[in-house]
Amino acid sequence: VYEKAIELNPQYYEAYNNLGAALGKNEQYDEAIEAYNKTISLKPDFAEAYNNMGIVLKYQGKLEEAIESFNKALSIKPDFYEAYNNMGIILKYQGKLEEAIEAYNKTILLKPDFAEAYNNMGIALKKQGKLEEAIEKYKKALSLKPDHAESYINIGVVLQGQGKLEEAIEAYNNALSINPNDAEVYNNMGLAFKEQGKLEEAIEAFNKALLVKPDFYEAYNNMGIVLKYQGKLEEAIEAFNKALLVKPDFYKAYNNMGIVLKYQGKLDEAIKIYNKTLSLKPDFYEAYNNMGIALKDQGKITEAIEAYNKALSIKPNCGTAKHMISALSGNTNKTAPREFVEKLFDGYSHTFEASLVDKLEYKIPKLIKDILIQPTNKEKLGSVLDLGCGTGLFGTEVKNYCSKLEGIDLSKKMLAIANQKNVYDKLSQFDIVEYLSSMPLNFDYYIALDVFIYVGELTEIFRLIKSRNKKSGHLVFSTEHTENDGYHIRRTARYSHSKNYIKNLCNKFDYTISHFSTNHLRKEKSAFLTGGIYVLSF
User: Fold this and answer.
1) Which has fewest Cβ within 10 Å: 210, 293, 380, 401?
2) Which of 195, 211, 212, 194 is nearest to 203 (CA)?
3) Is the pLDDT of residue 348 over 90?
4) Cα(208)–Cα(190) distance, rounded to whole angstroms?
5) Burial (0-12, 13-18, 19+ Cβ within 10 Å), 460
6) CA distances from 1 to 16, 27, 104, 241 (A)
7) CA dihedral defined by 437, 443, 448, 452, rounded to 10 degrees?
8) Sorting pLDDT into bands at 50, 70 and 90, what band is 525?
9) pLDDT for res 376
10) Helix, strand, or coil here: 485?
11) In angstroms, rounded to a whole number, what is the distance separating the alpha carbons of residues 499 and 479?
12) CA distances for 353 relative to 54, 232, 356, 460, 523, angstroms
């Protein structure tokens, strides 16, 4: 139609401008630019054509030229608020966040009710890490335009990143009430449900995403991860294969498939898949880490160390690779790196209890409770800090005996599951030493069950509890027991501690051993590990 109008009137500049817009929407960018240039040749002061050309240049990745085009629009029409908003978008893409925010502020000064500018400013503020300010801007956009679905989505993304999963899901539902056919939102909601441990709801959300967008390979990949958590390993592999059918170079799906094959004990196949991953993404250090695990399980220690060294060559500060090299080479380091522990338990969070309690017969939380709470003793435990609380197994045992129960853990995903049990008065994501050295300490009991197996050197923990706690109390913990003096890293990447090592720390920091016993800790390769059970008074 526009071409017919131009044929009838070759000087009809607005038809050229509209033709450019249509071509741009059809992703015919060079033709769109040509149409806008024709518009400008006929009407040099037509600011809208410069603005529209800037948008197309943005799509072409020509960001500096886009900014130049927006500036020309503004030189002609200084109150052209949409051009300021579009310029802000470009500046945000360039990482010039302060300049982007300045451009959005100019937009709002000219058009105070322009919801999109508030939403865009929120995006820039989020990139700066100013999350509460970002949410404030998104909410302002919604106050101006209640059906602005993107603002609800952006609020959901921020809240999800903060671990406020229920609020995030509510925001996503608000977005879907406006636009029920947004596959990305269903995918985000599925990830939120996954983090909550609501795996069936996650699968349902991913299925809805795929119903809207059948070629949504990320949703297939995410569904595969959830199916793995559910123990549906063949279905997980099927989901990863569907992702790869859509996107054959999707290296993350190959890596995830390798993890599932490793769980199935198909170590040769897993290694083959990790090599495929690395052929697509040679700098993907996580595939080398995963390959190291599979090679270790095959008993190929030299090759496993080589894989971890390759991970380090890509990411020199990779704590997981460093720790595993120490474990496999027998060079005992002082503690497992935070990255290693956090990643390990984030990955285990959804299967942790089923695996540890049901399959490995882990009963230490109840055993400790029975040691501390004698049937003839009606006294409460008082205030308790659960160091490395995980999913809250110990908390559920002792909640009714505590005047106050707090928990800390490195794994955000473990904490999310613990939070659902509603047994802790407070849960926080902390490293143990970080918490003990910086927070007020006034507890009757410090509990660390299956925690010191990831901490070799315990000196600082003993010192901080004794020196900083405001009253006398108790330190209760389990170890992987060894008769060899000191502490040692095992090939499992966990630590064992001797009773003599604990006795020396007690002597140094004036603790008294009120109880010591050895007991079955949990199964490993069908045999029980021997654990040391300690109750210390200070």
Assistant:
1) 380
2) 194
3) no
4) 9
5) middle
6) 11, 18, 36, 45
7) 30
8) confident
9) 61
10) coil
11) 9
12) 55, 17, 5, 30, 14
